[in-house]
Amino acid sequence: MISKLRQLTEQEVSQISIKNILLDFMTAFREDRSLQRESRVHRLELELDQLRVAGPRAVGVHHPSSLHLGSNKPAVCPRRLAYGVRKQMSIFGPVDPRVYNIFEVGHDAGAKYQGWLSYLYGEDFYPEVTVHIPELNVYGHCDGVIHYPINGEKVKIGLELKTINLRGFENDIKNRPTAKHVDQGALYMVGLDLAAMVFLYECKNTQELKEFVLTRDDVAKRWAHIQQRLEHVNEHLDAGTLPRIRAQSWCHTCPFKAECKPFRAKQAANLDRLKKTARRK
Ligand code: SF4
After folding, report:
1. Measuring from atom 1 of ligand 1, which residue has the nearest CA?
2. Residue 271 to residue 281: CA distance in whole angstroms
3. pTM higher than 0.90 for the full model?
């Protein structure tokens, strides 16, 4: 699938900056307050249109935005991902009202940038683009796709809009997006055949912006890992089985721990090992 992606040169990548386009746009508000008003009306209309056609969240699939495939360390549990798809539940479990409030803040910030980009790019900006990779059972929506002008040619690039608190802004995304976001971007790039993927982060404390441009090479580094993890989970889903238990500290916050009983399995394994050692003596 990777070979389908168009490889941009370093010089071409250096021309991509959604952040600068948005900063120039906001700077123009100083000169022309009607631009601010007009673009706000545009973005509210766009959001209303999107809400009117939005269907229910797809079930029985992997959503790129809520997948946690982990780094190469065993800090992720494929069994948890399988439970999530099978039970049509978030792998993070039910959230409290404060978290819903955080989601709303993130949504509003995303809608603001989508509206401004739609105002600026017109028919060259597509918000909420459906991404479907049937062979990996992946289905979701990318925040935006832009036909971005590079050297006189329009290049298809994706956009993901994120909000983050100051601590995360300064530490978690110091030099690059988080592994979870890179994987999300990789699925969008492959699913939509994008030449690049832009991550735009807004700091919730300061409204400062940070941007990263993900290229085909960045995706290629993660792709084998993403594919292998999803195929492993999908094979179990197809067979009606579950990946093996990986008892670890995050089991304590897993919404499926009552059914999975990870520590009971760990105790049984320890007991089994002790018995075998005792018999050998
Ligand atoms: S309880 Fe632990 S082992 Fe079981 S699914 Fe959750 S994270 Fe995985």
Report:
1. 257
2. 16
3. no
